[in-house]
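The passage that follows is intended for readers who have already worked through the single-chain material. We present the inputs for a multi-component assembly, then the predicted structure in tokenized form, and finally a short commentary. You are encouraged to pause after the input and sketch how you expect the pieces to fit together before reading on.
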Amino acid sequence: MSDAPNTSPLAKWVVLRWARRASQVLFLALFLACIFLTVAATGGGFDPSSSQGLLFPTEVFLYFDPFAALLVTLATWSLHGALALSLIVLVSGLFLGRAFCGWVCPMGTLNHACSEVSPGLKGSRRIRANQTRPYQRIKYFILAGALASAALGSAVGGLLDPLCLLTRGLSLTILPWLDYGTSNALEAATTSGSLALQHAADRAYDAVGGVLLYQRGAAISGGFLAALLFIAALVGNRAIPRLWCRGVCPLGALLGLFGRFGMLSLRQNEDRCTSCGQCDLSCSGAASPRPGQKWQRAECDLCLNCVASCPEDALTLGLAGRTSAHCVDTPDLGRRAIVASVATGAVLVPALRTGSASSIEGRPDPECIRPPGALTEEAFLSSCIRCGQCMKACPNGALHPAFHEAGLEGLWTPVLVPRLGYCEPSCTLCTQVCPTGALRPLLEAHKTGKDGAPMVRLGTAFIERGRCLPWAMGTPCIVCEEFCPVTPKAITFEQIDQVVEGKTAALSRPYVFPSRCNGCGACEYVCPVHDRAAIRVSASGQSRDPRSSLLLDDRPDKAL
Amino acid sequence: MTDDWTRRAFLGRLARSGAAAALVSGAAAALYEPSTLGPSPTPRLAQTRDFRQGLALEPERIVVARVGTAAESTRAAIEKLGGMSRFVRPGEVVALKPNIGWDRTPAQAANTNPEVVATLIRLCAEAGAGKVIVTDVSCNEPRRAFTRSGIWQATEAAGGIVMLPAEHRFREQDIGGRILGRMPVLTPVFAADRLINVPLAKHHSLSRFTGAMKNLYGVLGGRRNRLHQRIDESIADLADFARATLTVMDATRVLVRGGPQGGSLDDVVAVGEVIAGVDPVAIDAYSCRHIGLEPIDLPYLWLAAARSIGQPDLARLSIEEIG
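Having made your guess, compare it with the prediction:
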């Protein structure tokens, strides 16, 4: 929509705008690569002892997220590890304002693409949609509320963090869809009867199956619900370009506020302006670039569309502290609204915690089985930003976004669903990708309890004798014992001869040794009772919380 | 009202709606199936697969090699049997079926020794095999099991092809057994010309010993956790369904307790044997003694004998030991 430039200053902006687009594409590609490569390093190039890790730290984007860092820091009163890198983005915000939003943020780029490529609005309607409006203040209120919740110990604000939203959206929605489509395409190619197609499918699987497919199938419990917010954010661009970035994004709000003393400012030359509207038409931040309007510094993401599309050279971006009275450095939010937002965020914490089942305050949900390395529930909810990295990393598809299991506050935090996948004892990937330390990094020895390390327990397996084949139906089975990965096995059995209708059946009836069980869920996963397994894991006995210990022998100080 | 209708418009519309009606009825007629009382009949088309066709073999012989490394023992055992060219002809596709069930390292002795697998790949290549694939349906996540067992790496180093048990590589087939009916089976195995079964000897909580016959569970997909309800019969069914060209048992180190998954090195005993032969029943009968059992303890061996699959009576076998 930009007219061909005819003077040299314009050419400069056009080139810079292309640089901005290149930067957006680059960072989006990097982000996608990270998501796709959040898989275990497996293959012929790895010897048995080196298959523990990821190819590289795929959670790296989240380290540069100052909103997530601030949430966790406020909630835990410590700046966790590599989250310190987010200071780079925050400090850059001091000089460049929201350049991160316009040049780097992959969620911003997706929103940008959805607004610009085949836009939902054109012409005067788009100019109207691009005016600075009161709804843009909502993101500051969200930021204030999220930080207030964090100060009271809940990182629930991570639900609205753009990088978490995107990681979650891709891992729990788009990738499973891709998996579904790819699997079906492979199946169709294999059964097509064409040998060439069959071979192509086979080769394609070997080439890309490792990154494109969930190895244990792509069933994500609650994945669709977790997807809705992400899809809504993208569809919102039809109504208002970059609606999410302008109205909701708390990271954008944070950077906008930090850009108050920004070095780069828009200079508007009213004498040259013909009010053609090109700048308003293309403004991605609804920052009022048109001469005569007050430029909103905190809304501008430095996309350079206005300067690159102004045919009259009436707009330039240059070094300057403040331009004049033509600029609004910080949005006028109103003291009352801010106080109300902070109060809402603060009240939200007790409201969420008392208003639903929650493992905090000693009201555990049996299905709230956390990944290995999880902190105690309260500390976990202070650190988990709901980014979904762990769920993507799990090679067994065992981790899923909680819906009801962890209470309202725990929405979309990770829980283990053993019926869909179990926790492999040799695997520590989820703990490696967790950017905030909500899952403490573990070694294999922590999970197996070998080499003197105390064993991490996720819960305990319980046998429902009424559904168990040997216990209730006189039928041999004992698959749970076979699959139990701990040594010595946590499931043992007693051999008995049972007389059923005059015939003697030799049966092995399983028992669980709670002191050996690590709650990995392998038994529940393989139990042949197909729907509700006859052996099920619940969170009792989880080592992260001494209060849930089952046995008197398990002294809390021995638990990890 | 009649003003709106011309004859031409009327006929045109009639033709178009007629065509639409014909299309819909045609499609319905083509797809119509009358409802029938009772369950739909499934044709029984058992396709047992004999991978020994066209070969002159001596099923009564088993060779036990104990010479140095796993690779050396494997090579010596095959040589003693008459060399790989007795089992594999030039240009043939060979499927190796090791046990790659678990996310365990080689030292934990839950999966077949990767050296044995690599040596067999090389022997097949030397015999002129067109292609050697290595496959199994793992119990744990397959990519991890193939990697951590060391078999992925060993296979690629030896020039074999790793075939992961991807969903599209299964086809439902009638096993035609007394217990086993329709099950998804791993197609690369059944598309191959020859099948070499490469199990390892280890303890198993339910079947007591898992070796050559039980290893064939690993060509099945689907809900094989139900097979445990009639484990002896289903093991015999499988041995009947797929008759491997050759069986090479890895007993270089043996998991004597805590099987089939193991995990503790305390349960692993170094035995240093590789046992090769055509008859899986004979090889299991010989190998089960490494975990302190006798052939009489394993019902599935005798079920197999009754079906003329093999010979579990050690006295009737010719056991040749090397080293």
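Commentary: Chain A is about 40% helix and 10% strand. Strands of chain A lie at 264-268, 295-296, 315-319, 327-328, 399-401, 414-416, 460-463, 491-500, 503-512, 535-538. How closely did your sketch match?
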